[in-house]
Amino acid sequence: MMMLWMALSALGSMGVTGPLGVAVAVWLLAGRTWRLSLSWCLLFGIGLLLVVATKVAWYGWGIGIPEWKFAGLSGHAMRACAVYPVVLYLMFLKARPLVRHAALAGGVLLSVLISLSRVPVLAHSMSEVVLGGGVGLAVAAAFIAMARSERPAAVGRILVALCVPLVLVMPFTKPVPGERWVRQVAVYLSGNEPVQRAWKLGPDRKPYRKAQGPV
Fold first, then answer.
1. What are 65's strand-pairing partners?
2. pTM for the full model?
3. Per-residue DSSP letters for 45-82?
4. pLDDT above 70: percentage of residues in the chain
5. CB 114 within 8 A of CB 9
6. Is the pLDDT of residue 136 over 60?
7. CA distance linking residue 17 with residue 171, whole number of Å
8. How far apart are CA 25 and CA 12, in angstroms?
9. Which ranges carry the Phosphatidic acid phosphatase type 2/haloperoxidase domain (predicted)?
10. Is 171 within 8 Å of 24 (Cβ atoms)?
């Protein structure tokens, strides 16, 4: 079961969701819906900024919610919940309503599973996952609401052919050291040593500092 959680967690890494997010923007530009592409970039960028801001606040100044075991939004959860529903929605944009709704539901389900995987792999607490995923789903919902009025072109086979290898190959590449970069920014801005969690994660009580990975 742990191997499944680890595989799901890898699908939420920056190395996968980052390029997928860029692919969405590029495809929307190719379909000449530049305003929708800009809206996606802004929404996704706001989500990423919130993740970084909450992590910097914790690492730099210890600003969080210890009672909830909250030390920053889960980047994996935010990105997965923002990207996968949107990608599946665009892929099946011209399909029958039932198929399109099923694809969107599948994207949401996949993103929720990816988010939840961060708890058993000892990377985040449940509060960090839930709040991070909530931000991501809000990003996806806002974009899809805009897309319904803009009516972008359906995703072509070329984009699908590019995305599939990306999802299959990128989880096995060297991870982007996003968490380390965030800590370095927090230390630079605050002038303090990075704040560590005072609580433990996971049923086996392993310390968080031994389980840190990329955001």
1. 70
2. 0.86
3. HHHHHHHHHHHHHHHHH--SBGGGTBSS--HHHHHHHH
4. 82
5. yes
6. yes
7. 10
8. 18
9. 68-147
10. no
What string of DSSP letters covers the chain?
Answer: -HHHHHHHHHHTSHHHHHHHHHHHHHHHHHTT-HHHHHHHHHHHHHHHHHHHHHHHHHHHH--SBGGGTBSS--HHHHHHHHHHHHHHHHHTTTS-HHHHHHHHHHHHHHHHHHHHTTTTTTS--HHHHHHHHHHHHHHHHHHHHHHHHH-PPPPPHHHHHHHHHHHHHGGGSPPP-HHHHHHHHHHHHH-SPPP--SSEETTTTEEGGGT----
Question: Which distant-in-sequence residues (6+ apart) come within 8 Å of 122 by Cβ?
Answer: 201, 202, 206, 208, 211
From residue 43, alpha-carbon distances to 48, 133, 140 in Å are 9, 14, 8
* Residue 15, beta-bridge partner list: none
* Sign (positive or negative) of CA dihedral 184, 178, 86, 6: negative
| Residue carrying the six token digits 């303090």 | 192
Cα separation, 9 vs 196, whole angstroms? 22
What is the rounded average pLDDT of the residues 87-95? 87
Cα 48 to chain center, whole Å? 8
pLDDT at 153: 62
